[in-house]
Specification:
The chain has a single domain, classed as Four Helix Bundle (Hemerythrin (Met), subunit A). The chain has 6 helices and no strands. Helix content is about 70%, strand content about 0%. With about 140 residues, it is mainly α. The longest helix is centred in the middle third of the chain and has 27 residues.
Length: about 140
């Protein structure tokens, strides 16, 4: 379902923000860009938020599992999936973190990345909170 929703969205390259510590950048989602990408369609936005709520923990678990198993290919694929999701949600800081992990996996490495994965986790948790607040605001 989430992939079907992605098909309908137009997201520009502005989702690629520079990476910095998650704690110093509390805002993850560019709300204006996200609303524009869904054409200010609140029903579509709500569908996307629901899909993210249902899948983000599983996506993060896949990244964690790849690092725990020292599996660079699995890390590449899991981080790539997270990056795509974060691009759709206009969550630039999380995009940058997922891109970094994706590149590391592509380079053939997956060991010793626990701190980077937890940084991504904090970003994804913040995205979830921000999307929840946006949904409540729209209600």
């Amino acid at each position: 379902m989430f992939l079907k929703l992605l098909h309908w969205l137009r997201v520009d390259s502005a989702g690629s923000a520079s990476a910095g510590p998650a704690k110093s950048d509390p805002s993850q989602v560019d709300v204006d860009a996200l609303l524009q990408s869904v054409g200010h369609d609140r029903a579509l936005l709500e569908s996307i938020v629901d899909a993210y709520r249902q899948t983000w923990a599983e996506q993060l678990d896949a990244v964690r599992s790849a690092v725990a198993a020292d599996d660079p290919a699995a890390l590449f694929h899991a981080a790539h999936q997270v990056r795509g999701c974060m691009l759709t949600l206009c969550a630039g800081p999380a995009v940058a973190r997922a891109e970094a992990l994706e590149a590391i996996g592509r380079s053939g490495r997956a060991r010793g990345l626990e701190a980077q994965v937890e940084d991504l986790a904090r970003c994804m948790e913040t995205v979830e909170r921000e999307l929840s607040a946006l949904s409540e605001e729209a209600a």
